[in-house]
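Model it.
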Amino acid sequence: MQDFTERAVAFDKLMPLHLQLDTNGCIAHAGPTLRKILADEFVLGRPVSEVFELRRPARGASAAELAAAIGENIHLRMVNGSGTRLKGMVTQNPLADGLLLNLAFGISVVDAVRDYHLTITDFASTDLTVEMLYLVEAKSAVMAETLELNMRLQSAKIEAEEQAYTDALTGLKNRRAMDHLLASALHGEKPFTMMHLDLDFFKAVNDTLGHAAGDLVLEQVATVLNDVTRSDDIVARVGGDEFVLLFSGDLKFEVIDRLCTRIISRLEEPVEFDGQPCRISGSIGIVQSKMYDQPDAERMLHDADIALYASKHKGRACYTLYSDELLENAAHTEPPKGRENTAA
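Modeled.
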């Protein structure tokens, strides 16, 4: 009896997924891993056909039908609702009368490990499944590390792109970004309006109060421009005290007038620096894509600058909508004083 018990324990260690059937085809014993996946379901003494469905060979799971499959590969499916599939072989039971079914998960082992919370101890130490689980675990770890690395690289790429297209001082788009977005707008079918804004009297702020005051003013200008524009409009700092604004849609003159009046009014609000007021204003030149049969970036930027040039000549703190007449006048007019680029 002791010898029988020792061999039964050895079977459990060597074949944790085995079944022992009596001569009537009822389950006399189940290996520890098989008992684990069957959970609390009572199977001892039950016909094996009530617990498993024989999928291959295509016949039933009675004792006689299983005996006919001795030496063949068999495929079973649990009928308790989980549908877990097992594969294995049938032999005569060397411990007692009846049959021995030595089973394995096959290719579904990874799903079984996940579904039944199995560990390496649930498999025979000589089972190649253990090696496969090590490989799966190692592969999963590598994939997790690779995914994390890819996410870090993607984040770094996005951050680098944002930095490459962002003005460091104001947080607005920079000239590079504006060129890219203007090209996209030109390739689109929607009309848009471009405003070229140059600050008035900004050089005086830098000369009298220093570049720290100029930086503060530029930051306030960025706040103003963000406040008066919509989320789908573009605001870019393209030079020291020069800005380009792109407004999507066909803006009517009344809308342009309100926008420019509001921008200039807000810019003229003094910015305090070390107890001293910094006073600036803004001159604006405007072009619209609908003015051109085939608008291009260089032409629009040039014409917006001509219109800005006209605003400076009119006394600053105003806006001008481009017309061909302005281009003719510009050829005979000296640039206004203070129009030079004054980087902060």
